[in-house]
Every structure is written in structure tokens, then in C-alpha cells.
Amino acid sequence: xxxxxxxxxxxxxxxxxxxxxxxxxxxxxxxxxxxxxxxxxxxxxxxxxxxxxxxxxxxxxxxxxxxxxxxxxxxxxxxxxxxxxxxxxxxxxxxxxxxxxxxxxxxxxxxxxxxxxxxxxxxxxxxxxxxxxxxxxxxxxxxxxxxxxxxxxxxxxxxxxxxxxxxxxxxxxxxxxxxxxxxxxxxxxxxxxxxxxxxxxxxxxxxxxxxxxxxxxxxxxxxxxxxxxxxxxxxxxxxxxxxxxxxxxxxxxxxxxxxxxxxxxxxxxxxxxxxxxxxxxxxxxxxxxxxxxxxxxxxxxxxxxxxxxxxxxxxxxxxxxxxxxxxxxxxxxxxxxxxxxxxxx
Length: 345
Ligand SMILES: CC(C)=CCC/C(C)=C/COP(=O)(O)OP(=O)(O)O
Hints:
The chain is mostly helical. The protein is built from 16 helices and 2 strands. It has helices at 3-9, 16-35, 42-49, 68-79, 88-109, 120-124, 126-147, 150-177, 185-210, 215-242, 245-248, 262-268, 273-282, 290-302, 305-322, 331-341, and strands at 113-114, 117-118. Strands 1-2 form a two-stranded antiparallel sheet. Bound molecules: geranyl diphosphate (GPP). Residues 101, 104-105, 109, 111, 167-168, 171, 195-196, 236, 240, 250 line the site of geranyl diphosphate. Keywords: Magnesium, Metal-binding, Transferase. InterPro entries: Isoprenoid_synthase_dom_sf (IPR008949), Polyprenyl_synt (IPR000092), Polyprenyl_synt_CS (IPR033749). It holds the Pfam family polyprenyl_synt.
């Protein structure tokens, strides 16, 4: 592959903000072209969700997320010797899939705020939100099918669609277990691998495919992304309890709903007095009040659930890097790994 082309078009950045800005430059035009494939009013709803339009369809500049997944696809491609631009279809498809799942997830969770503004379903209703998610999924496959070299299309679309199946498995388990009963840590990990790890693995594997990498390199990138996805989900669980809504753009609502996320499960299995009190709070039949939420957060912290989750995120990040042979462990991928594991609460 043409490594020098990558170096000329996008120099290795090494700083998280530069890596994300470079990725945004590559992915933004492709995302806009992809969204333009949608019929009205789905195009307008997608523009709103992605932060380019306000609810009335007027141009806006709102938060559209950090674009970590496209950055992973692009950096995986350059780490495998490809040109950054050649990963654009993979980066766009990954971001479309990610947004399709968020739009559906907000419906399932009944969440009314994402990225600091009302969710799609809470503005346009559940039917339109379901349709928009479906349409973004279809457009993602279309982007890969129409914009990748013919030799890569088959494996790339296969990988994308099997990832969506895995996402659905993870999400189904999450919805059916996590709010009904206390899962084991192993179950939490299976859920996290399905709903978050699989897509991050797919981003990295698609990036490698775009570079024309061989199967061992694609598989190593997939493992790297999956492990990193586990770290991402663990940090997301911390954000779901201790996150600042002004930073995360969503209320820290996991305790109110009595969701069994990893910090909660880790605290409950600690065998401490705090665990006993937390179990009582979680076994009541209604949402927790503000005072109960604050108490639950204290109990989780004193039972060690917060620090265990933090350390586990760090361990997963290191294990992600261990999945990469030295020649694939680029500086940019290492920076992205740290960014994922240390993002702000
Ligand atoms: C097939 C589908 C719909 C998959 C959803 C995958 C996903 C990562 C949802 C968000 O998880 P979350 O509920 O833990 O995160 P958030 O707090 O952002 O809603």
C-alpha cells in the first residue's frame, strides 16, 4: 500500500484534538453526501441529529459527537499503510451505523436528551425515529457498496452487517437483563462487547481492509477495536453515574433507572455494608429520587465499584494495545486508545 500518500495528505498528528480534527475533515463531506441520499423529511431529521440543522431545518453548528469511530477507521487504515482518504467510506459507514443505533437506543430507553438537545424521537415521534435509524443503516451499506474498490466491497459489507447483528444481540441482552435482575460481571462484558466493542472492532477492521491489509492484520485491528470498545463502554458506565451533563450532553440517568451497569455490579458483589444498602435501593419498584441517586453514587464509590471500573477500563485499553503487533501500533492509534479510556467525566 502507498504509505507515502498517507503521509503527504494527512501527516501523523499524535495529539487527540488534531487526530479528531483531521478525521472530521475527511468524514464530514462524505457524511453530508450520504445523508443527502435520504428523502425529506428523513434528511432533515438526520441533519438535526448530526448537528448541522436545527429542528426547523435551518443551518446550525451543534455538537455531533467526537467522531471517535471514524478516527479509528482512518488511523487503522494509515497504520496498515493506506492513505487516510481511502478509509473515508469506512469512516462514514461506521458513523452512520453508530448514529442509527443511538437513535434507536434513545427510543428504547425513552431518553429525551442526547448531545445536549432533544432526541429525534422526542421531536418527531417514535415511528420517524425508527425509520431514520433504518435509513441510516441502509445508507451505510450503500456507501460501502458504491465507494469502495470492488475487491473490498464484499468483505466490508459482510463485516458491517454481521456487526449490526452483533449490536442487536448486545442491545437485546442489555434491555432484557440489565434492568430486570443483577447480571454477573461476565454478562455485563458480553453485553458491552456486543453493543459497543463489536462496532469499534468493525471500524478498525474496515480501516485495515481499506488499506488492502492481509487477514492477520485485519483480525488484529478487529481485536484492538473490540478491546478498546470495552474500555469505552466502561468509561460510558462511569459517565452514566458521575458524568457532567454539560460535557456528555446527556443526563447521568443510569441510577435513576436502577440500571445494572458495571460500577453497580462491581459494588454489589463487594460483600460490604454499602453493597447491602445499595441492593435495598435497587430492589424498590420505582425510579430513584434525587436523594437516593446521590446516596447510591456514594455507596457505589465506597464499595469500590467506581475504582474497579476505572482500573478495568485502563486494563482493557492496555489489552487493546497488546492486540497490535509492533508494526501496526501507530502513534495515532495509541493516542486514540488513551483518549477513549480517559475521556472526561
Ligand atoms: C442495535 C442497537 C439499537 C444498539 C445500541 C448500541 C448502543 C451502544 C447504545 C447506547 O448504549 P447506552 O444506552 O449504554 O449509552 P447511552 O448512555 O449513550 O444511551
